[in-house]
Amino acid sequence: MINILRTRRSIRKYKDRAIEGEHLEALKEALLRCPSSRGTNPWTFIFVDDPETISALARSKEHGSQFLKGAPLAVVICGDETRSDVWVEDCSITSIVLQLAAHSLGLGSCWVQIRLRPHSKDATAEAYVQGLLGIPLYMRVESIVGIGYPAETKAPIPRDHLDYTKIHFNRF
Ligand SMILES: Cc1cc2nc3c(=O)[nH]c(=O)nc-3n(C[C@H](O)[C@H](O)[C@H](O)COP(=O)(O)O)c2cc1C
User: In sequence order, which residues have a C-beta less than 8 Å from that of residue 9 and are 6 or more positions away?
Assistant: First the structure.
């Protein structure tokens, strides 16, 4: 696990290659094994591989979602706010677990923030994604994770770049 964390980076460029069935199944399994508060599992994961729909998802935000256009897979991560008051935490955990699982399989990925982000002057990114995919309003959209075989390499962050002043002992 520590090696997965040492080499993990956000990857936004992908090969034009569909994700193998075995890898897809492992990604689903990783999501469904995530912990959630009180074990309520308030989430729904929408696996999108239709290129037109992925292109539309790439237009979710003015900035920061366009890279999805080149992804063979986009996973939309939703949480049921009527089932959990901490759906944001639960969905955030699944988003990062999905990214780490993807990396462990040789796939690259990047998180697209949807919750609290605008689509345009008049619409939220969340409402746009809900409208596009037929998601009911109580099923909130946390993120979209773009995934594919990497077409860019990024150097791991060296250990001596880590900011150890972030870590305190016993008191603030
Ligand atoms: C909560 C969260 C939201 C993010 N939103 C976006 C996003 O909307 N678009 C994007 O391209 N990257 C997004 N990222 C990726 C970050 O930009 C990236 O993790 C950060 O710059 C550090 O780079 P690294 O992941 O390669 O270490 C997000 C990451 C997190 C954790």
Answer: 108, 154, 155, 156, 157
Q: Give domain status of residue 161, yes or no.
A: no
- Is residue 171 in a domain? no
> 10: Cβ below 6 Å to ligand 1?
yes
In short, whether 64's Cβ falls inside 6 Å of ligand 1 is yes
> Quick check: is 149 in a domain?
yes
Gap from CA of 10 to ligand 1 centroid (Å): 7
Q: Is residue 57 part of a domain?
A: yes
- Write out pLDDT tens, residues 17-66: 999 999 999 999 999 999 999 999 999 999 999 999 999 999 999 999 99
Span from the CA of 109 to the centroid of ligand 1 (angstroms): 10
The beta strand positions in 59-107, using DSSP E, are 73-80
How many angstroms separate the CA atoms of 63 and 59, rounded?
9
Please give the residue range of the domain that contains residue 97: 2-153
Q: What is the pLDDT of residues 71-130, one digit of tens each?
A: 999 999 999 999 999 999 999 999 999 999 999 999 999 999 999 999 999 999 999 999
For residue 111 and ligand 1, the question of a CB distance below 6 A is answered with yes
In this structure, what CATH number is given to the domain that contains residue 148? 3.40.109.10
Other beta carbons within 10 angstroms of residue 68's beta carbon come to 27
Shortest-distance Cα residue to atom 17 of ligand 1: 10
